[in-house]
């Protein structure tokens, strides 16, 4: 095993800089190459790294024998193409959210990585939120009794200029959806991670404020496999963007939390102070996607290194990462059909 794990990045857009910063900060990682149609953008990520190589075609980059991990930072609808090619080249993959935008393609990604014997991890940095971790543990410890409601409010603001900044944004082919698939996928992931898997959904989605193909506003009613109910509200159409917020209600307690910490921590029969939280990792990005911190990405870079060296599964593997997308796809199907849809 080499002293350093060598990473390559495919796609040099907004999110790629968080991967690059995390790789460059990690003592056991090295940024070896970046591939992007714009060598100017790629060059910004490798500035000061004399040995890092730049490519326009990621397929050429994958021929490098000394690349260990490929970070997939391309538009969502191309994740499967890059991941499968990387797996076939024997490279581990750290994919940005969402895993992909299509169920069959996600299956193909997972199968390709399993067949090649490489790791497939996906970045869901909001799973590191201290408030979420405390809430999930409290539910598992039975503190709220029987869970009856699990709600997620994911109301972001994205300007018309944001959607015009990249030809792929707001398209079904490459973005795969809007307020849910792009911005809201983190919150969709969290609510099912806390409450457990969803059995069925009934939903409305619409494009109310932006000139885009996909939804900028969505509401879904959930029935969890546990028997509990829930609501997801997602938007990029509201101004100003709101703090993302989660409500977990049981017959013996309530927990509410958001980007800024725990709002309510109440249990029947005893007073328990809300946990004192550590830094929230700078994960809030309800209004400006460039204001997030790279701390969460550093965790996933480190996790991939440890997964490779310890021959274990990544923190969020392919099977786990697809759950949020499968739920969103069911919401879209319900909105199109006007019917309740099984997940």
TrEMBL record:
Domain GFO/IDH/MocA-like oxidoreductase: 133-256
Pfam families: GFO_IDH_MocA (PF01408), GFO_IDH_MocA_C3 (PF22725)
Residues covered by the Gfo/Idh/MocA-like oxidoreductase N-terminal domain: 5-121
Molecular-function GO term, any one: nucleotide binding
Record-given protein name: Oxidoreductase
Species the sequence originates in: Paenibacillus naphthalenovorans
Higher taxonomy: Bacteria, Bacillati, Bacillota, Bacilli, Bacillales
């Amino acid at each position: 095993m080499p002293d350093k794990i060598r990473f390559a990045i495919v796609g040099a857009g907004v999110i790629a800089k968080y991967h690059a910063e995390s790789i460059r900060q990690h003592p056991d990682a090295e940024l070896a190459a970046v591939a992007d149609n714009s060598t100017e953008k790629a060059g910004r990520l490798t500035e000061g790294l004399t040995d890092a190589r730049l490519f326009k075609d990621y397929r050429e980059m994958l021929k490098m024998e000394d690349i260990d991990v490929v970070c997939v930072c391309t538009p969502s609808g191309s994740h499967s193409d890059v991941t499968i090619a990387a797996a076939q080249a024997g490279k581990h993959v750290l994919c940005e959210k969402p895993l992909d935008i299509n169920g069959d393609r996600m299956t193909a990604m997972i199968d390709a990585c399993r067949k090649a014997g490489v790791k497939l991890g996906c970045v869901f940095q909001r799973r590191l939120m201290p408030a979420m971790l405390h809430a999930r543990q409290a539910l598992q410890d039975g503190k709220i009794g029987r869970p009856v409601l699990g709600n997620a409010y994911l109301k972001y603001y994205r300007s018309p200029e944001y959607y015009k900044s990249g030809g792929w944004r707001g398209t079904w082919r490459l973005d795969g959806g809007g307020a849910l698939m792009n911005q809201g996928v983190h919150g969709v992931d969290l609510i099912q991670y806390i409450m457990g898997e969803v059995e069925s959904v009934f939903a409305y989605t619409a494009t109310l404020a932006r000139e885009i193909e996909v939804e900028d506003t969505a509401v879904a009613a959930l029935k969890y496999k546990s028997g509990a109910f829930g609501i997801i509200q997602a938007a990029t159409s509201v101004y100003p963007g709101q703090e993302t917020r989660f409500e977990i209600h049981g017959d013996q307690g309530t927990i509410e939390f958001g980007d800024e910490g725990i709002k309510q921590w109440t249990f029947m029969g005893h007073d328990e102070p809300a946990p004192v939280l550590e830094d929230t990792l700078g994960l809030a990005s309800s209004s400006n996607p460039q204001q997030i911190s790279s701390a969460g990405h550093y965790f996933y870079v480190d996790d991939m290194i440890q997964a490779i060296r310890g021959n274990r599964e990544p923190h969020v593997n392919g099977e786990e990462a697809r759950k949020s997308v499968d739920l969103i796809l069911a919401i879209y199907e319900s909105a199109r059909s006007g019917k309740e849809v099984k997940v």
